[in-house]
Amino acid sequence: MENLAIIIFSVLAVILLLFSIVIVNQKQAKIIQRLGKFQSVRKAGISLRIPIIDQVVGVQNLQIQELRVPVETITQDKVTLKIEVAIQYLIKADMESIKNSFYELADSTAQIESFVFDAVRAEVPKMELDMVYENKDNIANTVMEGLNSLLSSYGFDIKKTLVVDILPDAKVVDAMNAINEQKRLRQAAEEKGEAEKILIIKAAEAEKESKKLQGEGVALQQMAVLKGREKAIKDLTVGTNMEIKDATELVIKLIDQETLISMGEKNKNVIFMTSDLGMKGKMMEAMVGADVVSNQHKN
């Protein structure tokens, strides 16, 4: 009997010891109550409590958590929006903050959601749709500042607030897509027109330059022809002692004859009339005479 009592006592001791051990995981905290009253906060590791008298009534997560809150609201220009706000927060690791976060708020998640609803619906109706997209960071900052002000005394620390999605009504999305498509088409047409304009300008400039060069070439060619005729007249007057007038008329006749032959070969059905040799002769005589006189003075 004595041995049985020892065994029973040993088993009870082991059971009581097991019930006395409190094991807390990393980044967690357990709330201990003694006979219904807050007793202590146990953090990561192993500790002891009084069995039956001390009870673990709650576990608080000390990691950074994220809560996504969908909010339906309306803009200043009467567009219905669904905005999703992501709240990243944690419970501060000191004992007072862990205690307050557990005892002071009956449902922290619901209370955070309520504040986000109120903050977003206070800001968005002041803005038109385009401004909501442009100012989403401002909306997020307003929500974060308000949450920190509200929840800091209860042990919460709001780390980041993000507006992760803005979804207008489906009809508004279709209208926006149509507007953007028309804008892109108009821009493409403007760029195409500008490119065509540049090509026309470049072509005109190239034609202008071509004609300029062509004109210069014709002028040089005519100058060379005149110099050749002038040389022929000089050779006749110097080599044969022919008068300038006679030499000029002879050269002009030869030129006209060559021209007629050339043109007749190209079109045999055309009749050509000879030109006034007297006028041509006078012009050539004047040109060659002036040059001959100049050479005689030099000699």
From TrEMBL:
Annotated TM spans: 6-24
Domain Band residue range list: 19-180
Coiled-coil blocks: 172-223
Major subcellular location class: membrane
Keywords linked to the UniProt accession: Coiled coil, Hydrolase, Membrane, Protease, Transmembrane, Transmembrane helix
Subcellular location: Membrane
One GO-annotated biological process of the protein: proteolysis
InterPro entries xref list: Band7/mec-2_domain, Band_7, Band_7/SPFH_dom_sf
Membrane topology listed for this record: Single-pass membrane protein
Gene Ontology terms: cellular component: membrane
GO molecular function, one term: peptidase activity
Protein name as catalogued: Regulator of protease activity HflC (Stomatin/prohibitin superfamily)
